[in-house]
Amino acid sequence: MSSLRVAVSQMKNRVGDLDSNARDILDAMQWAEEQDADVLVLPEMCLPGYSPQDLVERRGFVAATNKALADIALQSKRVTTVVGTFGEVPPTSTWDTRKRSVSIAAAVINNGEVRGYYHKTLVPMYEVFAEARCFATGNNPSAVWQLGESTVGISICEDLWADGGGVSPPDAQAVAGAQLLLIPNASPFYPHKSDSRVANTARVARRTGLPAVYVNSVGGQDELVFDGGSFAVDANGHVLHVARRFETDRFCLDVPLSAGVRHQTNATIVHPRRAALREPLPAPEPVPELPTEEQLWRALVTGTRDFVQRNGATQVVLPWWWGVSTVMMGAVAAAALGPENVLGVMMPGGSMTSAEWQVAQRAADNLRIECLTIPVGEVATNIQRSHDFLDPMTSVAEPEALTLSVARQAMLLSVANRTARIPLATGNKTAVSASLVPLHAGMTGTFAPLRDCFLSTLYALAEYLNSDHELIPSEIVETRSAPFAAIGLTCDEIDPILRLFLEEARGLDEIVTILGVDPEMARGILQLVDDAEMYRRQAPPGLNVSRLSDRRVPLTNEWRPHQLRIDESSDEAGSQTQPSL
Asked: Relative to the CA of 392, which of 229, 300, 499, 538 has its CA 20 to 30 Å away?
């Protein structure tokens, strides 16, 4: 059976950094030449970076990307390279009436020339993806490419996920005579996503009878984290190799080709050269799979590091106390940036005991994080005194905890400004989704890396970090069983309900049936989520580490099926009560 020597370079994803991306591409091209490869495959949009969003509307950026590609093509040699970039198609509308002409494309370059472009056929508009808003679609899903004696197809990311009905580029390319599928991707992380990628690609390989090489990018880009894990499967769906996760990697292997049943011969000829005889390559060293907890940990560390450093900073500051969200945020930041670049600010006041502050200090010592202690009691008192001016206007007293939160927010932002550090918010998905902490307590900052992590997930991650030695003090880990004061429930009671509601869009009846929980308790939690939308929108951006991370619910919304309403016959008919939890 004949084979094609395929080189894969799993690159960092950097939006807009054309110079760095071009250097990485050229370095990979030189490496592929040294490997005597036939083709080099790079990730989706590896030249402009993914996702450029509305940068696509800036003609200067698209033009600069096209120029960078032309310069790269001039330096191409014998090895064919598939480069993720922009393409141009005749103005067309996709899911609406707006005409678009910029596509997501794979440029095929060889011997100093751009030999052609494959334009992505299926552009998604769901979950974290909004490609259809910005990009035009390709109209030639059956395009195939002649590399000497071999014929390959190129399908970009979403093109691979078609089920074989309707428009399916892999199936169309198989019919057109492809012997191998090359699949550039920019696929973001969530738990078990790598399993679904491999399973789907293997299913496509078996359905089409074609081996496939799937190439992903790595690194953080705003809310997204790309986790790598590029791989190759044979025509039977058996995995040939998997690259490292959350770091750049390269591999080169001889992929056995399908015989190819040719029904048409309109392949774009990249080059007509016959491959020289050569010794087969040894199989690359296998890469061990990471445990689920390690994958999440690396996603948080990678996303935090890249957000801070790629926005021109090196140091961060965060509020410090003994809560698990705070300490886990400190652990992530220390791993991402080095503990010497992380500053915690302890701000005593309120009901915290000296023993609790001592635990917080021990956590900082374990992480080797410097901590400042800045009392905020006087600041909070001054805020309370300023309310004297409001007495004629209101009779509502502000709770002490809320005043302290405002004081701590002001102090944290002041420290961030004075020390030129990025302030990190420590809020988690449980607290923010249901508004279980004061507005300013866990939401003050420029970036919220833990915003998509349930509180129970953070406790599990703390236990994972402690598997070798105690990094997170046991007193903190043991607070998992402590209920939220506002509702008297623990995170292990709340989180399963939130997970089904937020990530699986389950209704109240389904949640009660699946979990066997008290219906009134579940209803009350869902009401908290509905009522917290205004609160949640005030949170800073943060990392997406679940499949459904961003809810898009109207702020002004009277569809509130989970609210408990007073009997319509009463004088307060139609009014609402607090959830009875």
From this structure: 538
